[in-house]
Amino acid sequence: MNWPDLLNVSKNQTAGKARTSFDRDYDRIIFSHPFRKLQDKTQVHPLPEQDFVHNRLTHSLEVSSVGRSLGRLVGEQVLERSAGLKNHLNAHDFGVIVASASLAHDIGNPAFGHSGEEAISEYFITNSSLLESRFTEQQWNDLVKFEGNAQGYRLLNKSGYQGLRLTEPTLAAFTKYPRPSKVADSFKPRRSQKKYGFYASEQEVFSQMASTLNLKALSNHQWVRHPLAFLVEAADDICYHVIDLEDGCNLGLVAHDDTVELYAGVIGDRFDKKKLNNIKSKNEQISILRALAINELIEQSVALFLDNESGILEGDFDYSLTDVISAKDYLEEIKKVSVEKIYRCRTVLEIEAAGFTVIDGLLKAFVPSVISEQPSRHDKINYRLLPEDVKTEIGTTEDLYQKIRSLLDFISGLTDSSAMNLYRKITGISLPGRA
């Protein structure tokens, strides 16, 4: 693979423009309806009352900020090594591509975090005896393994959402897992093949994009990553590890001294305990250490990417950057502490359990209303409760898989609050006009 093809310079002539096609990608994402919904979707601590705990929106904005820095720093060096690219691109272009893809990286995640994904998958697994025979093997794999990354790729390419029409480099950078749900496992050790990145409904769209950018193919429907996807993944990993720990400390789930020690390991020689102790506010101490840790991880990730640039372009390097950088052991320790003390704390588990019940309840109500050849009166009432645009989309196709995909677009697109409200109404817990 080569940078001119990967960045589609023949189509995206950006040098010298005040607002490039890549800038337009960023603007379209941030003003899009699915992105705005992230403000009421669970990150780790669902429906928080504290204003310092992150939701999906604040997390995505922070990942985008880190991604922009990663992209610009890498872009500066790539342009120095490939002088011909300077006629078409600049470091800002690299930065905004990664920032845009990072901004959208969680756009396909349903309400209630990973429990929402699991609830959707579990519904179809539980009802396999009734439903599996009505779908192809590929389609069924999509349904029993709901994947937020594939859902995000679908939304970014779906004309119903104001037709975002993003550039191919941004869409490719967004795709951490360039493969469908059902493949042979011959490439499974590769990081990029750990999950899947597009549904059967978008397979042709992805194939055309891969052809345009000349992505290296591993098989008929599997490709190596676009190089900038490594930076998007790194930005997410950095924020996920470092900022979730800060939230955990602020909530009292992880002791202050333990948090300082974990951050100090990442920061290394730059950690100065004496300077830290001069800061009276413990929250400010943690905030400063978090910033230093992020900066250190950015520098290490950029250095590793540039050292392995040729292997990345050849498709030989296929690891998460944060799994290989020198701070990897400290990040692993942060992850271990976070799992034990943050992700499994009682309040998180209680809301996740409630979220699982809510999503499952919505599917039980609406899936039969969409797929039944002889719907009951109850099915018909539930169907009428769907938004008009969803009913229109479902009604324009006879393809059962496409009908289900449209329904899942609606259900997975609900925010935590809207999902809870709809569940209460259809189960009779809350009635119109009554408290």
Please provide a written account of the structure.
Residues 52-250 form the HD/PDEase domain. It holds the Pfam family HD_assoc. 61% of the residues lie in helices and 1% in strands. It is mainly α and 435 residues long. Among the domains are: 113-144 and 345-435, eoxyguanosinetriphosphate triphosphohydrolase fold (Orthogonal Bundle); 230-342, putative deoxyguanosinetriphosphate triphosphohydrolase fold, CATH 1.10.3410.10. Strands 1-2 form a two-stranded antiparallel sheet. The longest helix has 26 residues, at 56-81. The radius of gyration is 22 Å and the shape is globular. The N and C termini lie far apart (61 Å).
Number of strands: 2
Strand content: under 5%
Structural class: mainly alpha
Determine the CATH superfamily of the domain at 113-144 and 345-435. Answer: eoxyguanosinetriphosphate triphosphohydrolase domain-like
What top-tier CATH class of the domain at 113-144 and 345-435 fits best?
Mainly Alpha
Per DSSP, the total helix count is 22
pLDDT averaged over residues: 88
Computed CA radius of gyration, to the nearest angstrom = 22 Å
CATH topology of the domain at 113-144 and 345-435: eoxyguanosinetriphosphate triphosphohydrolase fold
Oligomer: single chain
The helicity comes to 55-70%
Largest sheet: 2 strands, antiparallel
Short description:
This protein is 61% helix and 1% strand. It has 435 residues and is mainly alpha-helical. Helix 6 (114-126) crosses helix 18, helix 18 (346-371) packs antiparallel against helix 21 (400-413) and helix 20 packs antiparallel against helix 21.
